[in-house]
Amino acid sequence: MQGRFWRFGLVVLGLIVVLLVGGYGRAILPTVTEILWDTYGVPHVFAKDARGAFQAFGWAQMQSHGDLLLRLYGQARGRAAEYWGENYLDSDRWVLTMGVPNRARRWYQLQSPAFQSYLEAFAAGINAYAQEHGNLIDDEVEVVLPVNPEDVLAHLQRVLYFTFVVNPAQVAGVEEKYSAGSNAWAIAPSHSANGHAMLLANPHLLWSDRFLWYEAQLQAPGVDVYGATLVGFPGLAIAFNNNLGWTYTVNTHDGWDAYELQLQDDGYLFDGKVRAFETENLTLRVKQQDGSARSQSLLVRRSVHGSVISQQDGKVLALRVVGLDQPGVLEQWWDMARAKNLTQFEAALQRLQLPMFTVMYADREGHIMHLFNGQVPIRQAGDYQYWSGIIPGETSKTLWTKYHAYQDLPRVVDPASGWLQNANDPPWTTTFPQVLDPTKFPAYMAPQFMHFRAQRSARMLDEDRQISFEKMMQYKHSTRMELSDRLIADLISAAREYGNELVRQAADVLESWDRQTEADSKGAVLFAAWTNEVKFPEVFATPWHADSPRTTPNGLANPQSAVKALETAASKVKQAYGTLNVRWGDVFQLQYGNQKLPGNGGFDALGVFRTVWFAPQKDGSFTSIGGDSYVAAIEFSNPIRAMTINSYGNSTQPHSQHNGDQLSLFAQKQLRPVWRSRREIQAHLEEHKVFKK
């Protein structure tokens, strides 16, 4: 009898081992920490504990982006001009005026003991790589070493709060030509072809500097998460695990205000009394071409509203920014990654440590969610337009001090439509029939509009009632120009009625055009040129209206004026390219590093879902500088299906073969499979790093 129980115990033990090892080919409780690098340069971190995962992730980021990471951290310290010269002086002034380095030190002290240790481990991984592979790091950026946890938090602040929430261009009132954006979809089982929820992640950022995405997998006891983060961040920002996933879009969140102060004596008026400014005298050091340094003083003044950002002609502006007293976004991301269901995920979200961004969510249980996330100030009065202007700063009536609670924010879970979308439009148009009523929320919560890319997004989701995983990826790459569908029939008709021979030739080209911005599309260049010759939104006969959010604006307000603009555009196109029928890809090209390929996709304003930003070149061509970057398509089947791409590759180090190695896939509108199990990774293994401690 004893032998029988012994044999039974061996069988049970064997079953437990099989369950633990599973598809990953290793136990859930590993004894070492290691990185398995796949053939696309994606690091798969398998760690014996959370601290090991953070340390390995710091190492991995240095191997892939060491030069960039150190340069970004140097800027976050406010010492970039000291390290690298005059070109960084404005950056240092902004960082120091916003108090980033000092606040980073305070934030570090406010982390939980566990997360302090994780930040220390991440920094230790960075430093260990630099010590072991200093020959692979640019000599110019080694001055930043060693990195400390406060550098990580300073970089986080500079990017999240003082780039995304507010940046110097916004403060100065300068229109940003290439503003951060994204597409995001969540599809419920009722709307999918095979009954599984699906998620589409698709941020649009510049293909350089602090906007680059880094793709990775982190596995440790209690967590197995795959996704991407911005270079220098110690946790994954857009990600999925075995149960759920989430992504972000830049939302219409107003997280900053500029207050005009009334000066009196040496202070400013506030509630009828004169208050003194808090002042801080700083010294900037600026590296000169001969290697010497010059000193420059910086006086930082702060009012009860925040830092003074400008003083001209007696007009003083102070900047107030949300979330500077909320230091927990990194730990919130870590807990989101460890969540197993919607309840646990929302428990992390409810802390509201992330200052902005729409959150789009889907899970294995079939739930989908759209949250207009952000630290939204509670304001006494005024609508979104009012708070987008200059605010009187002499009274506490305009000074917000608290934020709306989680339950106050626009949120949709499991809509009857079976789908949710956001393409940087306000939350009211996340699905149709519309679920959210703007009148039920404060007038300052979000504006009302739905631009053409968002309309294109909703159109594709609404018109296909049973979307397959493959079809979702096909829709992701749609280059259809929604704007053209609203205007082109009227434009062609007017061209034939009012135009000369050149204009009638242009009408023929537009009529035969496929309405796409594919590489071989003929007519897209001409139409895009025409949009540069007319004024928006005045060109439309019918303006956008909330009662018809997906069919307005439309029609030409002044057909004869539109024809004149077409004549101008046609002349310019013919002169520049020799023909009106020029291919889109001959003019608009995908470029990263030394690679140049025929382009496809187009600008947000044209209503192209596959967004690519192109910058003009001296020879009349346009080359890509941003737009679609990291893309992930996830189906919550069993096992999970996932496809992804990082348009510019997963490394910027000059010696790396992964610097730009995915551009050809991007040009072909292809995603690549995600490898998550150890067996899959080992089948595509490029490098293996084992940490001794």
UniProtKB/TrEMBL annotation:
Q: Which UniProt keywords apply?
A: Hydrolase, Signal, Zymogen
Indicate yes or no for the key word Amino-acid biosynthesis. Answer: no
Question: InterPro entries of this UniProt entry?
Answer: Ntn_hydrolases_N (IPR029055), Pen/GL7ACA/AHL_acylase (IPR014395), Penicillin_amidase_A-knob (IPR043147), Penicillin_amidase_dom1 (IPR023343), Penicillin_amidase_N_B-knob (IPR043146), S45 (IPR002692)
* SUPFAM superfamilies documented for this protein: N-terminal nucleophile aminohydrolases (Ntn hydrolases)
Which Pfam family is one of this chain's hits? Penicil_amidase
- Say which family it is in: Belongs to the peptidase S45 family.
- Protein known as: Acylase
The organism named in the record is Gloeocapsopsis crepidinum LEGE 06123
